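Hello,

I think I submitted the flavin-adenine dinucleotide job twice by accident. Can you confirm which output corresponds to this input? Input:
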Amino acid sequence: MSTTRPSSEPYDVIIVGGRPAGATLAMRLGRHGMRVLIVDRANFPSAPPVSVPFLMNSAMSLLDELEVPESEYAHDAPRLRHFFVEYKDYFRAHCTIAEVGGRDYIYTVDRARLDGCLWNHLSRFDSVTRLEGAHVNALERDASGRISGIKVRLEDGTEQVIAGRCVVGADGRYSLVAREAGARVTEQRTDVDTSSLYAYWSGYAPYDAEPTGIQIHTAGDGFSLIVMPTTEGRAGVVFQGRSDRFLVTGDAQAYYLEGLRRYPAIWRRLAHATQVSSIRGIKRIGNLYRQAGGPGWVLVGDAFHQKDTIDAQGIYDALLESKLLAAALVDWKQGAVSWEEAIARYEREALSATRAMFHATLDRVKREIYTELPPWAARSVLRWMMTDGEYMRRFSLLLARRIAPEGWAPPNVLLGALARGITNDLRRLVPGARG
Ligand SMILES: Cc1cc2nc3c(=O)[nH]c(=O)nc-3n(C[C@H](O)[C@H](O)[C@H](O)COP(=O)(O)OP(=O)(O)OC[C@H]3O[C@@H](n4cnc5c(N)ncnc54)[C@H](O)[C@@H]3O)c2cc1C
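Support: Only one job matched these inputs. Its output is below.
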């Protein structure tokens, strides 16, 4: 328990939310000696928000910058170096994880462990005060209307007003700070939202292509399933689909199991396995940006920007945005820039770092989950592309954020993939033919 009685002296920064975005922001500000109060209603380690996450190596590089050791958050999770995308029973494509910062692997991380580890690391910073089990109910304003603090209900049930020169909403997709501050939604896509359910399993059969490979099964009917090996010999098994077809009206557990059973490629691995957690899930994952900030307030992580989970970029984006925000807040505190300049710069940089990927992700959801290809097209054009080494290499670089999302699959790569696919098929059809 790290709850301390907050000070009556205004903090430089009050952060609401103590997981990837909030905790890493507090660490970066703590390095500069800024007086920070970080508040979370959870007690750590706690059940995480809905998320069964891949932790990308790009995100691990940002944790390295904060000297958070990999062994602490990874625990015994296997290093995942390959994923396999199956499209119905038509074909299977292989992809190798692109290297980032010397790591050629990612993890399916245990979120309770990761978040608890970040929270614990805050104790390294003398100027950072942690307050857990504390629910922020409202924002305070000064006479000019500028946000000047928070009203919080502490664990003992008492309410307290705490003053800060600014308040950061790192409080996730349903952000109270965004609501209370009146943050506008600046961009939103509602045409391709998905819903998902997941649970953890043990005793599952290894994947036939590679025992710790990630299996992604695209069912071609608006649904997809993922088997993600994780800690303690378990796997997270996700069932997701386009929201207009993912209609859980009654028993979600029954709906989940019925979904898994429908797809033999997945069910054959689970038929003798045990589901070791209850199911969790989310309806209609939001795809949006909010206004980054205003007088005395600013948003970071999912509170600022949330998107479909298909490309597993949420934690990386949260860590990256917190890095950009920390730099802006340090400059503001040191008087190098005004509050308005700091927030405008942060918003500009955060949009420039994430927006193209946001659209690349949603275009992929549209292509792979919302579009039903006729069998001939899936068996030919799609197969030629997805089983092409160069196409998949670039896709892997995209997920690693090592190439610009706008041009990750330019026409020459697509045409090359088609040409190689056709050539390979012809070779198979005409034994002895030379390429
Ligand atoms: C189904 C699903 C799968 C996902 N899979 C992946 C994946 O594979 N890889 C990946 O990188 N990302 C994934 N994500 C996204 C990832 O979970 C988020 O991007 C990430 O958690 C955002 O971190 P955050 O710190 O912004 O917010 P959160 O992790 O949501 O943390 C917000 C914190 O704020 C606290 N809080 C909220 N309101 C208050 C309040 N009023 N008072 C006090 N505290 C408050 C909460 O208790 C919480 O601790 C997935 C998300 C979902 C829904």
